[in-house]
């Protein structure tokens, strides 16, 4: 059943939402036993919300099951960003995006699994005690990351469903592509970060993942907008994204990013991207090759320096004293205590990022690394801005490969694992909206293309994605 039809039936009373949510929770538990898409299924909250909706079936999302990446705060529901250091943490408040969807009648079914604090591209850098989500099409393969649980449950759920993911450097488009669903990472600041557990404050965005582009448009409109609680949230008017679904794409111009169709790309991914470009051409879209030399050369090092620098300061607040995991003091000094808690409860990748980030911004190194990276980031933004004078959107694969097997991931060097993000980090550095569009199955695995747009041009991405659907 399509989302729109489902919401209509909830409103008319044709669907008994309490009964329905009982079934949804049962299905989630079953899926979770096998695939590990949830860190927490919020059964109690979901049923309470369903009771309320039954009494008062109102809102643009009335009765719709929505899952939430674990790093987004949901009041009263254990929220850990995939890290054991936050074991037992139940926020006292909702993130702004959560407030907005609850107001529209959404039912929150659970917190989804992810790389610890978002540090990863495969959802394999799990916090202590967390299980890796398995790809919905092949359990020996990953879901992508870091919003892996979101991608998995969106693909696997038999019920109408939207998920809220989060991206710092590609964590929405990557799992969307590996799980064969849509994922929109909006313009930086379009959705308030209030109540989002920070990875990198100048990079983090909340965005929707769904099986239908219409659902992406619906959800993006609801979660967007200015928030007085969050200083980087944008004050500009919010588009009616759904209006872009039926707009003609004839005459639009798309730039084909050179490293998207380059040498280090899996053949099937390359072919699917070219097929998509052909389909756009057939609809009257003009596509031509463009290059982003700065992003290509510096995207990865600049992203990892900035993201790790910000992460290393953000993680400093987890000291085992205020909330989350704690330990015995046993007469130890603050530093000893702090070291003990963090050694025990943070995973290897989190420790690595703390060391890298602390080094990059320490006195004596800062000019050579953090400051230099921030300067080059500006160049990356300028490079994109020049292209958007001519093009409505840029196209490339989201990821150069099909979802890899876990044993292949284990064999990757750290550098190889980081460079998987080659195509996704630069739009994130520039704060640009980007959308992953499923292109269908190859060798029984899903693949996706990515469209990147100018700031606040989410509508154009939705317009192009809608034109690619089978009518
Ligand atoms: N894979 C990237 C990283 O490890 C991006 C992750 C994200 O967007 N949260 O930092």
3D structure, described in words:
There is one protein chain. The strands form 2 sheets. An 11-stranded mixed beta sheet has the order 1-3-2-6-8-7-12-13-11-9-10, with helices on both faces. Strands 4-5 form a two-stranded antiparallel ribbon. It has helices spanning 3-12, 17-35, 43-55, 96-103, 148-156, 173-179, 213-223, 267-282, 293-314, 334-345, 348-361, 367-387, 406-411, 414-419, 425-429, 458-467; strands spanning 38-41, 65-69, 107-112, 134-135, 138-142, 162-167, 182-185, 205-210, 253-257, 286-290, 393-397, 434-442, 445-453. The protein is 40% helix and 15% strand. It is of the alpha/beta class and 471 residues long. The model has no long low-confidence stretch (mean pLDDT 96). The chain has a domain at 3-244: Amidase signature (AS) enzymes (Alpha-Beta Complex). The chain is globular and about 70 Å long. The protein binds glutamine. Residues 118-121, 146, 167-171, 199, 307, 421 line the site of glutamine.
